[in-house]
Amino acid sequence: MCPSSVPRRRTLVGLGGGVMSGDIAARFSLGPAAWGPMHPCMAGQRKYALTATLMHGYTDGAMQAAVYERYGSPQTLELREVPRPEPGPNEVLVKTQATTVTLVDTAFRSGRPWMARLFTGLLRPKNQILGTEFAGRVEAVGSEVDRFEVGDVVFGASDQGFGTHAEYVCVAQTGALAIKPSNITVGEAAAVSNGALTALPFLRDHAKLRPGQKILIIGASGSIGTCAVQLAKHFGAHVTGVCSTANVELVKSLGADRVIDYTKDDFTQGDEVYDVVFDTVGKSSFSRSKGVLTPRGIYMTTVISIGILIQTAWTSMFGGKKSVFAATGLRSTVDKNADLLVLKELIEAGTLRTIIDSHYSLGQIADAHRYVDTERKKGNVIIAIPNAA
């Protein structure tokens, strides 16, 4: 190769970290101490510096990915060629067909809230390919894989909580990975692992929602909220959703018994009381919601903050009303895989569906971030990757 044709290279920081969940905290990197054993497929992504080749076209062992090196606006995202991961003995290489852009992704991109930087990197992001959810086709399997075969269409969440805004992703066969339900598209399947995989443990394990209980869901038209409404109804609860005027009919169509339009009414000023207030978007607080909780009611949020951590610790020891933040992403891969199979059954039975707001290509991912930044999306924003079809 002549010097003029040698591609220019730039070294990027590796993709490290564990997963801390909820919504805004769903993919906090916990740093090297929490990495655990190195997955062979991640060797080129987090153990070593990741070399991104800035050139047109492809080279052997490369893939396209949306990369960001600094915190800031959507303009920080660039489509680049990076090394393609290779599956280890117990891993599956998936050719991504669809992924999502969530509020978590936009928070990590912008570096706000600042608390996130304690985990993602104070000055620059340690994890430079965002994205957790995906759906696609199995491209290759490791020598010990016996649950999946090449050609299977699968959906799930990445083991590391990052890296799915790319053409390929490696996942352990025992991780959050399952065969795609036959009655939904790959875009709809990709969205499952964001909203439903978060809502299910909150409602089932932390709220312990029972038939006849009353639940208020704030952000009922979002990715987590739309799944929470349906799952709460599945558990037999009486559901009140909170959303804007434009989304009232959508939330009703998901099964909500009552919908509060927050542009017209304040849920804290009504006479209704609830066993559970589930804030899926971090727009309220325990102190603001206490007045509408039953004597032993629970306020749950997916958004981490110093305040919610203090309140969760305090109310776990004192008082009847409880404040709960749950790091659902820190559950074992066995638990997450089991939940994914539960959700798959509900989808195939027609009990649960994912809501798609809009589709973008990987090359339009900055536009997708701009839209999600408006906080006006209904359900999920999907990134389609045609080259992986």
Can you put this structure into words, describing what you see?
The strands form 4 sheets. Strands 5, 6, 7, 8, 9, 16 and 17 form a 7-stranded mixed beta sheet that branches. The model is unreliable at 1-59 (pLDDT under 50). Helix 4 (186-206) packs across helix 5. By secondary structure, this protein is an alpha/beta fold. The protein is built from 10 helices and 17 strands. The protein folds into 2 domains: 3-192 and 332-388, Quinone Oxidoreductase, Chain A, domain 1, CATH 3.90.180; 195-330, Rossmann fold (3-Layer(aba) Sandwich).
Mind sketching the topology for me?
Elements lengths: L7 E5 L30 H5 L2 E5 L7 E6 L10 E6 L7 E11 L1 H8 L6 H4 L12 E9 L11 E5 L10 E5 L4 E3 L6 H21 L7 E5 L4 H12 L3 E6 L4 H6 L4 E4 L12 E6 L6 H4 L3 E9 L4 H10 L6 E4 L7 H16 L7 E6 L3 H9 L6 E5 L5
Parallel strand pairs: 10-11, 10-13, 11-12, 13-14, 14-15, 16-17
Antiparallel strand pairs: 1-2, 3-4, 5-6, 5-8, 5-17, 6-7, 7-9
